[in-house]
Specification:
- The protein has a single domain, classed as Beta Barrel (Porin), CATH 2.40.160.
- The chain contains two helices and 15 strands.
- The protein has a 15-stranded antiparallel beta sheet that branches.
- A hairpin with a 4-residue loop joins strand 12 and strand 13.
């Protein structure tokens, strides 16, 4: 437990020192990038590496799960009016033997969630709302049966948000049903709903809160982590990046689920 906390503290010190070194013109550019980064369907290529650690899992509350989410976001210009935004989540998972004693320690890839959003190139004239919709796909990429569903799935996804000055507020949601895969595994019928709110300062620092809530209709279980994060845009040489640190508390979880966790992200940005 000590090592992830020390890592988060080191990242926080690095972000703080980089932010102070930023000059005024660069700060203005970074502030604009920070606002785009808080928009899930912005025309901005980003490659986040998001490390999550969840604690107090299992019957004895001794389990720990480490999950590295690789989440490339790639916007594709279809024409002058529409963009197609590709958002991928590929989890790399490690859990210790106390999570599920009968399964032991596990390490490998989990299932991939692939979303595509069709989004207007300009905000809607209706309140300057930004929105997108499209399909979400569940791909059975898990390297071990315990790490994934062994199911193919699909369903709709939608995002709706508004950016006003330093504030970004909105939600992202999807519904996935399984349609093929291992017949011996339970079917997938899951709703994901993520309301989010962020405030971005002139130094490109964003204060973010969201609920990454999901409901499993098959088991009738909620999983609702509340995430509280600080994000900073900075440059190392020519490369524009962002760092993020955060804490989360689980408002609800399945039996033997986690009660709290930590997050640290490194995001590579490639503005057009």
């Amino acid at each position: 437990m000590t090592r992830p906390i020390l890592t988060l503290l080191c990242v926080a010190c690095l972000l703080a020192s980089v932010a102070r070194a930023d000059d005024a013109p660069e700060a203005a550019k970074s502030e604009e990038l920070a606002k785009k980064l808080n928009n899930p369907v912005a025309a901005l290529i980003s490659v986040p590496f998001q490390q999550n650690v969840d604690y107090r899992i299992g019957a004895n509350n001794d389990g720990v799960i480490y999950k590295l989410n690789i989440q490339p976001v790639i916007p594709i210009k279809l024409n002058d009016e529409w963009n197609l935004i590709s958002r991928t989540i590929l989890p790399v998972v490690h859990w210790n033997k106390d999570v599920v004693p009968s399964e032991g320690t596990r390490f490998g890839l989990s299932d991939t969630t692939q979303s595509f959003f069709f989004s207007p190139a300009e905000p809607s004239t209706w309140g300057q709302m930004i929105w997108g919709f499209g399909p979400a796909l569940l791909l059975p990429t898990a390297t071990e049966g315990a790490l994934g569903s062994q199911k193919w799935g699909a369903g709709p996804t939608v995002v709706l948000l508004k950016q006003s000055g330093p504030v970004t507020a909105g939600f992202l949601a999807n519904q996935i049903w399984s349609f093929a895969g291992n017949d011996n595994r339970k079917r997938v019928n899951q709703t994901f709903f993520q309301p989010f709110l962020s405030y971005t300062t002139h130094t490109a620092t964003s204060l973010i809160v969201n609920l990454e809530s999901s409901y499993d209709w098959t088991t009738a279980d909620w999983t609702i982590p509340a995430n509280f994060m600080v994000q900073q845009v900075f440059k190392i040489g020519p490369q524009i990046m962002a760092g993020q640190i955060g804490f989360r508390s689980y408002l609800d979880a399945p039996p033997n689920g986690p009660s709290w966790g930590l997050r640290a992200s490194l995001i590579f940005l490639f503005p057009k």
